[in-house]
Amino acid sequence: MQYWLFKSEPFKFSWDDLVSKGKAGEEWDGVRNYQARNNMRAMKVGDRGFFYHSNKGLEVVGICEVCALSHPDSTADDPRWDCVDIRAIAPVPHPVTLKDVKANENLSDMSLVNSMRLSVQPVKEEEWKEVCRMGGIDPLTLEPA
DNA sequence: GCCAACGTTGGC
DNA sequence: GCCAACGTTGGC
Prior knowledge:
Oligomer: single chain
Strand order of the largest sheet: 2-5-4-3-1-6
CATH class: Alpha Beta
Structural class: alpha+beta
Largest sheet: 6 strands, mixed
Distance between the termini: 21 Å
Number of helices: 5
CATH topology: ph1033 like fold
Protein name: EVE domain-containing protein
Order of helices and strands: EHEHEEEHHEH
Strand content: 25-35%
CATH architecture: Roll
InterPro entries: 5hmC_binding, EVE_domain, PUA-like_sf, THYN1-like_EVE
CATH superfamily: ph1033 like domains
Number of strands: 6
Shape: globular
Number of domains: 1
Domain EVE: 2-134
Pfam family, one: EVE
């Protein structure tokens, strides 16, 4: 399994919006950046991702799961844009802020810090565990820890 | 709301 | 294929 991070501006599409979509999840459309698209093309069903609120909040608020492989973005009129579908699987009990991430030396290589503008990012397994720990969630059971 | 960073576009 | 202009992202 691989790990990822999805950024969204909460006033456009928030964690609560994703939760309200339930098991069916939501097409992660609108991405018009090659690197982000390539990341989505590399995803497999069952891969997990952090859901991060950009602009407002600036924190990891939930954990989601890829529930459909990349496919053409239904909102794009250009066939080069693909996207996956994701669904919410667990909230993060104590949202992990960008400030917290920046302050943690173990996370100094995270894309969130170094590739600020990339909206769909890979997350290393150690980073995944560390952010889960900070957020008070067990990375295996997804129960509060 | 500002502006730095950075990706994309398009003229040459 | 270079690079200036431009648009967008996203933290502050």
